[in-house]
Amino acid sequence: MKKWQKTTLIIISGYISYYTSYILFKLLALNEQTIVVISTLIGLFPLILYIFVIRKMIKKENEEVSKSSIKIQELNKLNEKYHFKRITKKKHNIIDREYSRKSLERVTGSSIIKYHIENNIDLIRTDIENAIYNIDLLEEYTKEVDKIINYKSENKTNYSLKKFQKIENRVLNDSIHKRKEFLIKLKLEVYYRSNAGKVNETRYGNYSFEDLVKLYKEWQNGNKYEETIKQERKIMNDDIRYNVLKRDNFTCKLCGISAKDGAKLHVDHIIPVSKGGKTIMSNLQTLCDRCNMGKSNKMEDYSSKNNMICPDCGGKLIERKGKYGIFIGCSNYPKCHYKKSKK
Description:
Layout: H1 3-27, H2 32-43, H3 45-68, H4 70-81, E1 91-98, H5 101-106, H6 109-118, H7 124-149, H8 161-175, E2 185-193, E3 200-207, H9 209-221, H10 226-235, H11 238-247, E4 265-269, E5 284-288, H12 289-295, E6 317-322, E7 325-330, E8 339-341
Parallel strand pairs: 1-2
Antiparallel strand pairs: 2-3, 4-5, 6-7, 7-8
């Protein structure tokens, strides 16, 4: 019996138990509150019975048959042989905010998803890659499973052959890897909300595994950081600019000239967006007009003492000790795996 069938059966049994007992106690003219409490407890009885009795019984049957069944033993060996990669989430959700109605109309779902793939946000790229790898591996795995299924059942238990085969098939069905285990999907929500909160507009989109693979391949064959550049530049707003300028005392971080000296100040990405930099406070700095033009999209040594910034996620770089000695790693580990040797 499938999981949804078990759940449906338990719900129906509970529903029937509740209303049957409710009608019976109503005929006995008991207090309404008492009837509801007793009927609820009786209605929950099928669930309690399943959790504490039936599940234990099923587990015991599975263990006994697994010890005796050649099919199950061979399948367990096969599952150890094939190393399917872990899928962290089968259902991914992306919620993206646009800061103008025009931007909401212009933005495409594919560009938002590619941006998440490019930066592996919420491990979406890892899940897509692992799912592709698993499905490719599944074809060879299924051929070997079919050979095992054709083995003859040998019943060495006290169960009848019919019951033994029923339990054996149940265990096999639960243990065999299937394509649907690896099919991830995504729900996208893009919205615009005005600062006063008077305007609220939302767009939704649903993407199948096939859609995600297509977008992944388009990103893979396209220009790297193309989506990041578009998204990160879009994030920069007046509020972020002011906070960076204020933090840096309205002074250029390279030459020291300030707004009081008449300098025209800019907010610069330390790691350029063209090289994967993020629009986050730790990756932003104040530069004057001349320094900003001189720096352009150059990258400095971000592992230096004064500028310990991760080039992958914009987090802090710190010294770590590993199996092979001291190295520079990202403080956002395990979300970010950036590392480099200490020179």
